[in-house]
Specification:
CATH topology of chain B: Rossmann fold
Number of helices of chain B: 10
CATH topology of the largest domain in chain A: Rossmann fold
Strand order of the largest sheet of chain B: 2-1-3-4-8-7-9
Shape of chain B: globular
Strand content of chain B: 15-25%
Largest sheet of chain B: 7 strands, mixed
Order of helices and strands of chain B: HHEEHEHHEEEHHEHEHHE
Helix content of chain B: 25-40%
Distance between the termini of chain A: 44 Å
Strand content of chain A: 15-25%
CATH architecture of the largest domain in chain A: 3-Layer(aba) Sandwich
Helix content of chain A: 40-55%
CATH architecture of chain B: 3-Layer(aba) Sandwich
CATH class of chain B: Alpha Beta
Structural class of chain A: alpha/beta
Order of helices and strands of chain A: HEHHEHEHEHEHEHHEHEEHEEHEHEH
CATH class of the largest domain in chain A: Alpha Beta
CATH superfamily of the largest domain in chain A: Thiamin diphosphate (ThDP)-binding fold, Pyr/PP domains
Radius of gyration of chain B: 18 Å
Number of helices of chain A: 14
Strand order of the largest sheet of chain A: 2-1-3-4-6-5-11
Oligomer: heterodimer
Number of strands of chain A: 13
Number of domains of chain A: 2
Distance between the termini of chain B: 54 Å
Shape of chain A: globular
Largest interface: A-B, 40 and 31 residues
């Protein structure tokens, strides 16, 4: 199945209550697939084409505020439009799942795959100090798996979670093992799970629930911010996920996620055939960034090459992690921009040129 | 007769609605918001809807609507209340969901959201407070500011050459087949308040009957923003706003009908 279609199928199967979206290449298949599957007959899931990404994210806000399991998907320019709403969602502490099937930017850019929204996704994107949990699938199978995982983490932390993928994985066809069906929450279950904060209708037995990000008293607003930061620190402590490929004996490490990680897997093979001991560290969570494993591996290697489909965004986080480890290993960057996917040969050559020449 | 003989339950003719919250009033004296909040509170109470209702508050002075009415609330980003309400009601079709929006919120930054929510016929009530000015940010021009009206961003009065024309949103949404009940009311006098309450009640009943979008505009005053006393503001509204925004029902039909009745 196609990556984008798997997102739709996984949403239906994991008991998602609602999807609100707006067409944009290269992710339009998500909503098309949902409309074709007509899940409202099967599970009761609502699917609605909004008038804009701005409206779509605010529909997500409303439905998430009512305690439901809701999601949207878009591609890079659409995520810029949604950033206002995402900031409000983070500020009001609402759980929801967002998907960014990235394309090249800036501006209207190109419809080809890119990873240029890394910083937007992991550093915030909208206004104010907030973070999202960001999951980076590198296969169609993970497109399936991370829908359920994304919802689980979103509700665990009452925070937006994002699947940050790209047009290559969205359009790619691979074999996939679909998840089993989970029942949607009944209204009673929504009240039981989320009734303490969600707008499920106020009974006389509790105070009214108000979904808001507003607090004009700056002393109280600072307390709110401190609570958010505490939550983000907890995510950093408990949710770092990664895959380490041939890292045990590695002298050099590629750090790459998503499509770039697939390229690097091949590059590891090519380099190893040439006798270069190189491994691949693939961050699965981009926030929280898997710093701990980098700290652990840093003293054992000669250098890192961050391979990205952008101008060098994640490389800053790799450098910070190496610095935090008290190490001074070299951290270099190789990437292509504008919708170009680097070739494994280019990656190996960059490794030799940037890290091995002086060593 | 002693006052104590008069104060008996059987003599009670009026009391504060049970869902109206005792709190410090942040609205200016003379502001229409307080009156409309009271009417909504009374109706939620009288119609037994507290547990069924979710309100969507706007950005602007009425962002604090949730401090006055004891129901579950969501506060929307500026202009986005109709989209937020869509999300709530689509997944909770048995709830009574309403938005409460000012003119800057509804007619300017949120023009797309309100048009499309009404056009889809979302089963919600929209309460539209039109006082022709941005109250909370300090009295700037609104899309509904009438021509020649002085605001902080039209110090020489609104000039259509520079600022365009005052936008009649209610006339616009009456043209949309998704709406069933579209009316323009006011709340400056006792008869007007009673009429306004009847209109709001009809709007709520339409939502309960799943008739699509009901839209109640209340032509309102912002005496602080207008730099007038409350009495002057009411008079100014009657003399200057009512001719441009005439009161009355514009549509009272079934969802799906293409145009307004008049």
């Amino acid at each position: 199945m196609k990556g984008n279609e798997v997102l739709a199928e996984a949403a239906i199967r994991c008991g998602c209550d609602g999807y609100f979206g707006y067409p944009i290449t290269p992710q339009s298949e998500v909503m098309e697939m949902l409309m074709d599957r007509q899940p409202w007959d099967e599970t009761g899931m609502v699917v609605l084409q909004a008038e804009s990404e701005v409206a779509a994210i605010n529909m997500v806000y409303g439905a998430a505020g009512a305690g439901k399991k809701v999601m949207t998907s878009s591609s890079s320019p659409g995520l810029s439009l949604m950033s206002e709403g995402i900031s409000y969602i983070a500020g009001a502490e609402l759980p929801c799942l967002l998907v960014n099937v990235q394309r090249g930017g800036p501006g209207l850019g190109t419809i080809q795959p890119s990873q240029a929204d890394y910083a937007q996704a992991v550093k915030g994107g909208g206004h104010g100090d907030y973070k999202m949990i960001v999951l980076a699938p590198s296969s169609v199978q993970e497109m399936n798996d991370f829908v359920d995982l994304g919802f689980e983490l979103a509700f665990k932390y009452r925070n937006p979670a994002m699947i940050l993928t790209d047009g290559a994985i969205g359009q790619m066809m691979e074999k996939v093992e679909l998840s089993d069906y989970k029942k949607r929450w009944t209204d009673e279950e929504v009240i039981e799970k989320n009734g303490s904060w969600a707008t499920v209708g106020k009974p006389s037995t509790r105070e009214r629930n108000v979904i808001t990000s507003l607090e004009l008293d700056s002393a109280k607003m600072e307390v709110n911010n401190q609570r958010f930061q505490e939550k983000y620190r907890k995510m950093e402590a408990e949710e770092q996920r990664y895959e380490a490929i041939q890292c045990d004996d590695a002298e050099y490490l590629f750090v790459a996620f998503g499509t770039a990680a697939r390229v690097c897997e091949k590059a590891v093979e090519i380099a190893r055939e040439k006798g270069i001991k190189v491994g691949l560290l693939r961050p699965i969570t981009l926030f929280p960034f898997p710093k701990n494993i980098i700290k652990e591996l840093a003293p054992k290697v000669k250098g890192f090459l961050s391979v990205e489909m952008n101008a060098g965004q994640m490389v800053e986080d790799v450098k910070l992690a190496v610095y935090d480890a008290g190490c001074n290993q070299r951290v270099e960057f190789f990437g292509r921009m504008g919708g170009i996917i680097p070739s494994p040969g280019d990656v190996v050559e960059a490794l030799e040129q940037k890290l091995m020449k002086e060593g | 007769m002693d006052i104590k003989e008069i104060i008996k339950p059987e003599n009670l003719v009026y009391s504060k609605s049970k869902v109206q919250i005792d709190t410090i009033m942040h609205y200016c004296p003379g502001c229409t918001h307080g009156v409309v909040h009271k009417l909504i509170s009374e109706l939620i109470d009288e119609m037994g809807l507290q547990e069924k209702t979710v309100g969507v508050a706007p950005v602007g002075c009425a962002v604090f609507a949730y401090n006055y009415i004891d129901i579950d609330w969501q506060e929307a980003a500026h202009g986005r209340a109709p989209a937020v309400a869509t999300g709530i009601v689509r997944l909770n079709p048995e709830k009574f969901v309403f938005t409460y929006q000012g003119d800057g919120d509804l007619a300017s930054i949120g023009a797309a959201e309100i048009i499309h929510a009404c056009n889809r016929g979302e089963n919600i009530l929209v309460v539209f407070i039109n006082n022709g000015i941005y109250g909370m940010t300090g009295g700037q021009m609104a899309p509904t500011t009438i021509e020649n009206m002085v605001t902080s961003t039209t110090p020489c009065g609104r000039d259509h050459e520079r600022n365009g024309y005052p936008l009649k949103m209610t006339d616009l949404v009456a043209q949309l087949p998704g709406t069933s009940y579209v009316t323009r009311q006011s709340a400056q006098s006792a008869p007007a308040v009673r009429k306004c309450k009847r209109a709001l009640k009809k709007g709520i009943q339409n939502v309960l009957d799943k008739k699509g979008t009901s839209f109640v505009e209340v032509v309102s005053t912002c005496n602080s923003g207008w730099k007038m006393t409350p009495v002057q503001a009411n008079k100014w509204m009657e003399e200057n706003m009512f001719p441009y925004y005439p009161l009355g029902d514009m549509k009272d039909s079934e969802k799906g009908e293409p145009v307004s009745n008049n």
